[in-house]
């Protein structure tokens, strides 16, 4: 009976818990909603180095919490979003940014897909032009790009067909 | 010549395959430090109770120094502790510690049990100084030159291999350089 009661209670509590992906604890939240909004925005762009595919906004790691608190402290002290981000990258490098910056070392990362798309486009265009060129030489029929039968071949073909009929 | 074009996808596939295969050998935890070749961050940490000296920038100048971030609650720290002790006692490397988010009595008990090879230890209770050092996983170890610049960083427990192949040659180089 007690087990049933506690299970029901747990279920009710779970159902009442708001579903949120954020790991921000109530004691971290700033009083100023505008500042808190900026803090959330910055936290979503910062990688948690302990669990590398989460942002510090999502992660429950102690370091993520420390960094969230730090971000809020810097904002309260009057830093701009960019200043807060550079404060963190000065210590942890560009790797903490979930959106890698655009610079010489990341050029291929940003440009690469477009370069490959362009190469694909050029290759496709060349291929299509080659095919059209071949088709223009003869009638658009199956096997249109093979040479027509010679006189000798035609006679042999006729002979074979006649033999089939007989 | 035309036939080579048909080989192109295969060559591309091999290239991508080799690149991915090499990725297996890379440790995703091994993130290059942003602080290499930069002076150690400005900081000043108090000593453990009963110890004389803490840790600050001033203590890090003058000699090539190994700075080890450790905690009594950290299991890999215990694994690397004999290696650090050997570095300090047998190889004559100055080793200083940052005690990361630890209770003072736990840290002291841990040092009494495992030995204390540190020339001095700074207590970083809230982990703020560790953040300034770019620490994200204890243990971490830094090697600083005589001017107090960070020249090398290792994340995770030191192994005999890291000591032999990286730290000792670097210590020798840094000592002869200046």
TrEMBL record, chain B:
<dbReference type="GO" id="GO:0030288">
    <property type="term" value="C:outer membrane-bounded periplasmic space"/>
</dbReference>
<dbReference type="InterPro" id="IPR004799">
    <property type="entry name" value="Periplasmic_diS_OxRdtase_DsbE"/>
</dbReference>
<dbReference type="GO" id="GO:0017004">
    <property type="term" value="P:cytochrome complex assembly"/>
</dbReference>
<keyword id="KW-1015">Disulfide bond</keyword>
<dbReference type="InterPro" id="IPR050553">
    <property type="entry name" value="Thioredoxin_ResA/DsbE_sf"/>
</dbReference>
<dbReference type="GO" id="GO:0015036">
    <property type="term" value="F:disulfide oxidoreductase activity"/>
</dbReference>
<protein>
    <submittedName>
        <fullName>Thiol:disulfide interchange protein</fullName>
    </submittedName>
</protein>
<keyword id="KW-0676">Redox-active center</keyword>
<keyword id="KW-0201">Cytochrome c-type biogenesis</keyword>
<dbReference type="InterPro" id="IPR013766">
    <property type="entry name" value="Thioredoxin_domain"/>
</dbReference>
<comment type="similarity">
    <text>Belongs to the thioredoxin family. DsbE subfamily.</text>
</comment>
<dbReference type="InterPro" id="IPR036249">
    <property type="entry name" value="Thioredoxin-like_sf"/>
</dbReference>
<feature type="domain" description="Thioredoxin">
    <location>
        <begin position="34"/>
        <end position="176"/>
    </location>
</feature>
<dbReference type="Pfam" id="PF08534">
    <property type="entry name" value="Redoxin"/>
</dbReference>
<dbReference type="InterPro" id="IPR013740">
    <property type="entry name" value="Redoxin"/>
</dbReference>
